[in-house]
Design goal:
Strand content: 5-15%
Distance between the termini: 40 Å
Mean pLDDT: 93
Number of strands: 2
Strand order of the largest sheet: 1-2
Low-confidence stretches: none
Oligomer: single chain
Amino acid sequence: MAQMPAGQAIIEALRAEGVEYVFGLVGTTTNSIVTEMYGRTDIQFVDTRHEEGAAFMAYGYAKA
């Protein structure tokens, strides 16, 4: 079985579910995910300053 980096596996799973935007913070725990998203046009990362802001943004986007 071919192996892939964790960030790539997460992005592929999100794309399979039709996710277009990911809201969150850039940091050591999300580096591999954000790095994998860099330069892609099919899924975008929306960087926030606080987790609560990311949650509200995601909720608002889902409701719109």
